[in-house]
Amino acid sequence: MTDTATAPRDITNRRVLKIALPIMLSNVTIPILGAVDTGVVGQMGQAAPIGAVGIGAVVLSAIYWIFGFLRMGTSGLAAQALGQGNRAEVAALLTRVLLIGFAGGVVIILLQVPILWAAFWLSPASAEVESLARGYMQIRIWSAPAAIAVFGITGWLIAQERTRAVLVLQLWMNGINVVLNVWFVLGIGWGVNGVALATFLAEWSGLAMGLYLCRAAFRVPAWRDWARVFDRVKLVQMAQVNSDILIRSLLLQVIFLSFLFLAADFGDVTLAANQVLLQFLSITSYALDGFAFAVEALVGQAVGARAVPVLRRAVRVASLWGFGVAVLMTLGFGLFGNDIVAVMATSIDVQEAAAAYLPWMVCAPVLALASFMLDGVFIGATRTGDMRNMMALSTLIYAGSAYALVPVFGNHGLWIALLISFVARGATLAARYPALERSVAD
Q: Rg of the Cα trace of the chain?
């Protein structure tokens, strides 16, 4: 083991694709699992179980999402430690991540009573749906430590370019979840509680698989070197990075939530059309995440090794692949967008409304590309203060755009404002990129 920087490997197309493709395949499994959850309870022939699983899953996902910073922050910090050749810090960081995940999960369990109360106060439902959803959440919430720790494990694996392991982890968790869903609900007849128990077991088994995939770290004594694990400087750095990412993510949520709230003023049909078209953004995210994650790992390692030429090549190669995928998606949305909408919504009114706003979604992959890729660059470099500040500026630009455009152009103005926010994120981060390079060279 050495604590000196290692010579960075060349950035090739093959290396980028080796990181990106497993992430893209992993993302494909996410909507499949949601469809299975809905499908198995749908076989019960009642509406309430479907609503209960939907509400319960959305609420818990939103709570766990708060800890999403653990994935992004860990990726940048671990990649930089790896670029420095500091294997001891890489191992110690894994222990820190696991402790934070467990602690966060325990806090959620202890606060489950007010969490459940707030959830149903904000999203009231019928007595039957609320009762079923409450039971669902009371089972699933006990896997919170595992679910949050897996965020950190995922970031740790991505930093080391081990995205095949990330794919294995995702397939393992989702595969177990699907099998147990079918068995518990359709086989045994446990209903909504069966769906919750399947997810509970899948998340804890996912943690076990994650630890197995990280087993090499536990051969490095530093993973239990408590003086290193609780090093004050490292903890402060980790807290700063994670808090910056959390603020940035909250601001991003403000944009999307305000988009939905403003769309509600245009009526149910327009709101439904917007909701359908937002799925195109989800598809865009699933596709571009692979290259954004690749640039996180490669930039982090380059920063750790203080190798500016490698940093530049990592950004260029990953971004070119991302651009190619974005162009393909734009062409796909343009050619088949109306067909995709027809699959998602059977209402003719919703289909016609969505067709009117579809051109904005056709533009979205290319216009959003820079924001995705530069997010990955700044996460890998742990320049999270810039991410936070540029996200705040972009949120203000979005708010000003919506204020000026929505009264004049209605829902078209709302979509333009959303796309402007993507462009603003990319442009403002691009403006900070030269400073990032200078910080590495110094």
A: 22
